[in-house]
Amino acid sequence: MAKSRYADATKAARRAAMSAHKVTAAANAGNADASAQPTASAVAEPARGARRDELTHVDAKGEVRMVDVSDKAETHRIAIAEGTILMHPETQAMVLQDRAKKGDVLACARVAGIMAIKRTSDIIPMCHPLLITKSKCDIAPIAPAGMPADDVPEGWAPARADGQVGFHVLVTAGVTGKTGIEMEALTGASAACLTIYDMCKAVDRGMEIVDVRLLHKEGGRSGVWDRAERQAAAVEAVAADGAAPASAPVAVAPAAPTPAVPAIAFIGYQNSGKTTLVEKVIAELTRRGLRVGSLKHHGHHGFDIDVPAKDTWRHHQAGSKHVGLICATRWAEYADTREEDEMPARELLSRYNDVDVVIIEGYKTEGFDNIVVARSGVDRLRGKSSLDLVDGHTLALACNEALARQAFDAGFATRAININDARAICDLIQDHLGRL
Q1: Does residue 236 register a pLDDT over 70?
Q2: Which helix (H) or strand (E) holds 214?
């Protein structure tokens, strides 16, 4: 098949994927007095469409069978399918920044999609083995909520109506043969999504795979089938009748994936008072009934956490690279790593499944929601401005009055809270958690 034909089909499928949520919403907008109206499928269904009256993989006795295609003519066939995996925004950032422990997530998922296309007949019982002539797996990050379509970076999928982020998978499969290649495309999309889940599950087990579906097919006796065209035809038919069809699907946003435990980082320069403030905040949040965890980033080489001369300390001194200690009411572990293999913060946070919030001390550049802790005197001594640490993730500036005035004079919109007012800071944290 000519290359341009594949390209045209892929473009059509991309348009279908981008418009699917909009079309569904439009179809549901006129849902009044639906019961007396014909179904959209009855209006829009062509003579040979996506539905048939019989199951071809079941014989007259009701037994499953592989369809005999020996008498069918060989034709050029294309199928394009999509799938989406939704995840916590921090998980998406980890993948895009190539910080996943297992390696390059998207590269591995693309390969998995192509491999699955080639091995579909080994997975789907009644699927014919095919001599694949075309296989492609594209994966695009989904833009965050509120990003205008014109601002979406090239290679990204547009923001979803429900605001969730993750990755959109688009698989194209082609063959010259006697039977269709839809199952290969669908299997490829599924495998790519599953591979992303496998490589990220250590930090986000709440990821959700949704919308695995055929977008476009062509070739064979049934010719061309295109999801976007069929949905648009259904919407036009509904608009012409002035009401929604009785069987119009109700648009239900997919359930949000279970997020990782919320984490708030207290960041600032040395001697700004981070540890003292973190200690007060942990105590106050605990007093309010929250289960609080904590994480400290030690910016220097090495640290001692064990007690000299105790058994586990002796294990480590003897050469143990990963030490654990367990009793009935507590457990602990620590491990030696190379500098370049520092444990990712989010990977460690995935183990915090018994708390409501984690208070982090440090990690200025990891993209956590943060509170900047600062004192004007420390800034003068260091010759640096703590206001440089304020970014789009900053919830507040915990500082002294002089620095609060500096921030106001410099035009910062970030809220300033007295560094000694732990209760006000905890009020802010609880308000933030309530919005997540």
Answers
A1: no
A2: strand 208-218
Contacts of residue 187, Cβ cutoff 8 Å, sequence gap at least 6: 116, 117, 120, 123, 124
- Indicate where the chain has its CATH 3.40.50.300 domain(s): 263-309+347-435
207 contacts: CB under 8 Å, gap ≥ 6? 85, 86, 87, 88, 91, 166, 196, 197, 200, 201, 257
Q: Which of 68-82, 300-314, 413-427 ranks highest by mean pLDDT?
A: 413-427
Which tokens go with 203?
A: 């930090």
Instruction: Please state, in angstroms and as integers, the Cα–Cα distance from residue 324 to each residue in 139, 313, 320, following that order.
Output: 40, 10, 10
Token pair 């590269």 is at which residue? Answer: 107
Q: Which pTM was predicted?
A: 0.47
Q: How does DSSP classify residue 64?
A: B
Choose the weakest-confidence range: 141-145, 208-212, 234-238, 347-351.
Answer: 234-238
- Give the relative orientation of helices 182-200 and 105-118 as an angle to the nearest 10 degrees: 150
Burial of 364 (0-12, 13-18, 19+ CB in 10 A): middle
The residue behind tokens 């919830």 is: 395
> What does the alpha-carbon distance between residue 126 and residue 333 come to, in Å, rounded to a whole number?
50
CATH of domain 3-41+73-241: 3.30.70.640
| CATH 3.30.70.640 domain span(s) along the chain | 3-41+73-241
Asked if 80 contacts 170 with a C-beta cutoff of 8 angstroms, the reply is yes
Task: Count the alpha carbons within 13 Å of 351 in the hemisphere toward its beta carbon.
Answer: 10
| Residues that are catalytic | 198
Spatial distance between the Cα atoms of 352 and 262, rounded to a whole number of angstroms? 10
CATH superfamily of 263-309+347-435: P-loop containing nucleotide triphosphate hydrolases (3.40.50.300)
Nearest to 394 by CA among 373, 418, 411: 373
> Which segment of 76-85, 129-138, 205-214, 337-346 scores lowest on mean pLDDT?
337-346
The amino acid that residue 212 corresponds to is V
